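[worker-b] picked up task from shared queue
[worker-b] task type: protein-ligand structure
[worker-b] ligand name resolved to zinc ion; SMILES cross-checked against name lookup, match
[worker-b] sequence length check passed
[worker-b] input payload:
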Amino acid sequence: MPEDLAASRCDSCSHLSSPPQGYCPEGCGDTMVETVISPEGVLYASTVIHVPHPEFGERYQVGYADHPEGPRLFGHVEADALVEPGTRVRVALELSDDDEVGRRVRTRFVPHTQQEVGA
Ligand SMILES: [Zn+2]
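[worker-b] inference finished, payload out:
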């Protein structure tokens, strides 16, 4: 079963953020409470980047996915061919330990059609 996503919810205005944030982006201040949300989303937009990256290779796909509870997340789409908007995706967050540039988060979207093939 896929892992729930780490998130935070504002105790004042209920704004939901994933990955978790220490401050409410709506300006309420230090009112965020840690929570989890389901790892499901729907791809809102995507594009293939053709500029090589040392970590991601010669080409890679990025996009935005809407979470049913509210947040629109940016991340890498795990697919070779362009994935169309409206495709259901499983969302995974990879949180690194703090290093010299701080804590890094990588968000990945796995289209449901690929999960079914790989299952
Ligand atoms: Zn708030």
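[worker-b] attaching auto-annotations
[worker-b] The beta strands are 5-10, 16-17, 32-37, 40-49, 60-66, 72-77, 88-95, 105-111.
[worker-b] releasing lock
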